[in-house]
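Hi R.,

Here's the chain you asked about this morning:
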Amino acid sequence: MKKWIVRIIIILLDVLLLLWLALKIYISIEERKRADMLGNADKYNADQLTKHSGSPLEGKTIIFLGSSVTYGAAAEGQSFVELFETVDGVNAIKEAVSGTTLVDRYSALADVAFGNGDSYIKRLKQLDTKTEVDCVVIQLSTNDATLKLPLGEISGSTDIADFDTQTVTGAIEWIIRYSRGTWNCPVVFYTGSHYDCAEYAAMVDRLMELKEKWDIGVIDLYTDDAFNDIDEESYALYMADPIHPTKAGYAEWWFPKMEEDLIRILAN
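And the predicted structure, written out as tokens:
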């Protein structure tokens, strides 16, 4: 009997190993495909862009917390974060792992594929609390929408112990309260550009409600009709898929709007 148990365990381990190898191969193939996109040409590299001398953001230390969009998963790891660094002289702390969520849950898939399955909350708690931080910028994660994680309800409290971090709303409130209590700085959330997803649209609506409760900054790319009014050719250049921008998408479409809004928010 023991021999059969050992054999079953060995078979299961072999299957898991094959699945892991298949996942790694798939990710590698997808990365190569995306690298060849016109929107990821070298001319869109951060070091090719014009620096904004005397930017109001120069020298500011900003934490950028998020998942694949903040990481730059479809842009060879270059997102708007590197643009803020290069163009505006921001001291960026990039805490971005693809596949992770606002909701405080472990992702085995993200861990296997990208080396870390911890939620936004767990990774935020691992950052140095003694760092002098000027702002925390957080991605309203599409992963929570894709996984259809519970939206939850807005708490009647501002006590961090009262937030249900197993819901999107509770996780957002926890992140706001923790960031302010730890670094005493402005907190800004940003959304992705528009794509058809009822769950994400509901998250954006909830974020606007939380903006009123917490007086946070919001860079809203999702509901801005003027921002999203671009032709099909430009969209094909800027987006690798409905969620993830290319280097060109960050440089020419998202970043100018995000830069403008972040400067305005921090000036108030």
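DSSP finds eleven helices and five strands in the chain.

Let me know if you need anything else.
M.
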